[in-house]
Write a structure and sequence with these properties.
The structure is a homodimer. Chain A has 2 domains: about 50 residues, Homeodomain-like (Arc Repressor Mutant, subunit A, Orthogonal Bundle), CATH 1.10.10; about 140 residues, Tetracycline Repressor, domain 2 (Orthogonal Bundle), CATH 1.10.357.10. The first copy, chain A, is about 75% helix and about 0% strand. Chain A has 10 helices and no strands. Chain A binds a DNA duplex through helix 3.
DNA sequence: ATTATAGGCTAATTTCGATTAGCTGTCAAG
DNA sequence: CTTGACAGCTAATCGAAATTAGCCTATAAT
């Protein structure tokens, strides 16, 4: 991999653990295997490295998001996918989202970095909220609205349904970011949450 | 207020906005209205100031927690309080918790500081998780278990109930920490969440 | 009245960390 | 071959920022 790219990787790695201010350019250089001044052949300053990470991650997120929305508008296409959503389907979807957010190397590191730096810059705060709250909530709200419309789920406020479905995943994700060793303890809880959620909102009363 | 105490207040205020590393002792001194070297008459280092904040906040939290538990064990006493919990009672409780966490000056600033510093020190990570996840969840789990036992709520996994009840409050709190101006948008959502939650778990099927 | 202490100040000191200067080897294009 | 850009290095530079030294005043206890 090019040195330039490697610098971004190592910098993200370090920033996500210690925050921008506590990482020295010499640390980044060492992680890359070069000396600090050599970094300046690739980026004009420490801040420039940070900005490059930001740009890269924003692009990558937008690509992902575009992939999810596929079509023009919102989760209409996925309506098909979820029209027949079963409890197991919901579990699979929730777990998939959780596992991806939690384990994707770049996603996780970027999230940790944003967590640390969010109060330093309003743009970072916006980004965090968009990627980890607003976007997932609005996507899922659209999905639940459709599942209600299709008669699969009860007709309740879909924003609330999305909030109740997603926020446990979010909260547990933040816990696991702090304590990766506790993940095993939470996996079953998440699955139970989704099944219980499904049971509560499912239309058919009897079985 | 004593200078010594004022230093802690101003330091917490600054740390909660910019993080430890980005706050200079000169900033703290200026906020207090003295010169940087004078700080050293009260604390032996910048780190010492941070530690003092930590100690103070831990004590304060323990006092609060002791007050909630009142009795010896867990939320048994509150069982009484919640034995007859109505939907409105749950709303009042949830909103109260949310408003307290979000608006109490010290609680909020301390939480922001922990948010920024959580990955720098495992002790801080523990503290954050305890105060904002483990403790609330275990308290509420006990409460819901009792409400189920009392026949008020359905008999579902109380850990999951606590997770579903609390995590929306937690997630929205983290959003409001970043964007205080959005609070108004979320208050109604929280209330709807709690009422919908209550409706879903309430025992009486018909009305 | 004397003195010790607390708490403040200014002026160093010291250390650290980002960045710049300037040199060097490599290698591909001409 | 030879030249220029690239990517590395070592050795400055330069500016913070924490902390220390040493001085001063008020005040409270002796």
């Amino acid at each position: 991999m090019s040195t330039k790219k490697r610098i971004l990787d190592e910098a993200l790695n370090l920033f996500s653990k210690k925050g921008y201010a506590n990482v020295f350019v010499a640390d980044i250089a060492e992680a890359v295997g070069i000396k600090a001044p050599s970094l300046y052949k690739h980026y004009k300053s420490k801040q420039d490295i940070f900005n490059a990470i930001l740009d890269e991650m924003k692009q990558s997120y937008d690509r992902q998001a575009a992939m999810l929305d596929m079509n023009g508008n919102n989760a209409e296409a996925d309506a098909m996918v979820f029209a027949d959503v079963s409890e197991d389907g919901l579990v699979k979807m929730g777990m998939g989202l959780f596992m991806y957010f939690l384990h994707d190397e770049y996603v996780q590191k970027f999230r940790k970095m944003l967590t640390i730096e969010q109060f330093a810059d309003p743009e970072l705060a916006e980004l965090f909220t968009k990627q980890y709250s607003d976007d997932p909530l609005s996507y899922q709200s659209a999905m639940f609205a459709m599942l209600s419309a299709n008669g699969v789920l009860k007709e309740e406020n879909p924003d609330v349904m999305a909030l109740q479905f997603y926020s446990p995943l979010f909260m547990i994700m933040t816990i696991c970011d702090r304590h990766p060793e506790r993940e095993a303890e939470f996996i079953p809880l998440i699955e139970q949450h989704i099944r219980q959620f499904s049971g509560l909102y499912s239309k058919e009363k009897d079985k």
